[in-house]
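Running low. Invent one:
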Amino acid sequence: MESAGFEAYLVGGCVRDLLIGRSPQDWDVTTNAKPEKIQELFPKSFYENKFGTVSVVTDSDDPKLRTIEITPFRLEGKYSDKRHPDEIKFAEKLEDDLARRDFTVNAIAARIEMGQLKGEHLSERVRASEPPKRGLSASETEGVSLIDPFGGQKDLEKKIIRAVGDPLERFDEDALRIMRAIRLSSELDFKIEEKTFSALKEKARLLKLIAMERIRDEFSKTLMSEVPSRGLEKMRELGILKIFLPELEEGWEVGQNKHHIYTVWEHNVKALDCAAKEHWPLVVRMSALFHDIGKPRAKHGDGPDSTFYNHDVIGEKMSSKILSRMKYGKDFTDKVAKLVRFHLFYYNVDEVSESSVRRLIRRVGPEDMEDLIRVRICDRIGSGVPKAEPYKLRHFRFLVEKLQRDPVSPKMMKINGDKIKMITGNPQGIKIGLIINALMEEVLDDPEKNTEEYLEKRAFEFNSLSESDLKKLAEAGKSKKIGLEEEEISIIKKKHYVK
């Protein structure tokens, strides 16, 4: 762009990350060229927004450099809806563009000579640039110039999140910056500067005006930080959780029983931190955070003998409702709800039957069993247990892998609906489904029965039953699955209370 007579600077989070030695997740460039000129200079680009940002597709081997967003210097007017500027005006000066940004650590620009982005030591060169004096000045080292009019480098050194200019105005402009300040503070382990923190508290109510999808994205990024409990604690302290996730805060100061040293809130966030420490994905982190969310509503009694029966079922319903409200996708929502529902699974060598584990696999799904185990590990570590019983865990994983070869779903049976229709002479309908369920129950109890000869014989016998009798058989099967699970858990609870 500079060869065409335009200014161009790296700006925002990528510069911040380079300065602190982190690998940038994306790359943003600001320029005095207008969108039409940017597209003219970069034919492999697209422009599909009203903010002037042009996405340029590169030929870089680095996935993070394959798309670079280039935005003209901007001035922004009033934010009547506390979400978007009423109008976008292009500016002529870099300083005007930096002045509109949220935090000082994100208001640093870097001018890098052509070709330097591919250099192996770019981050070292950026960090080596001496902090310039306050004002629009630049420091240079080995082809890198830094422009820092608001003291962002000093705040990086002091590990401070500070708003650019008046924090009340910044949060009035876009209330999502409240969530972003907390997320950055959590990600970087930075303190929020006093005036900025006070403004956060005063303006937190404005988050009610923000689209839930935007809040969801910042919340997810907070959970994906190295120690997400830091962000959650700030959200609770500032009253932000009450706005979009009040159910989680219900566990604050709710004591448990004699087998727990932490409150429900403390236990949930420690379980989340365990998932983060293991670098597990968002679905496991969310499930770990929500696994006991139903406890406050399930609690009976108080003190060391209090109980929380059915908190897993309550938590499943709460998780589904919360994540749907927060606009998470259906598959994600369903999986979290399922992991919350079954996080109480218990396994002890020689104490739990293979058939009950088979039923657990059927209900959870073979593909999600490892994540269920992970949530259980988080539950245990979050309770203050020093380790997650590695021998039992290894044995359980072995058993799950072994039993996955057994029929745990109708697709794995040596018979299908078409064959049953042929044997019984019945058209596709409720009765065919009921016969499949009855056969499934038999092979869950005894995989040796999963043969064509046996299943065809039993399908013919089941066909002689009325739909009413088959429904009773199907219901008995459902009760049997639930009964086995609850019976085994109740036996263990009598020995050593399992929450």
Notes: The first helix runs from residue 13 to 19.
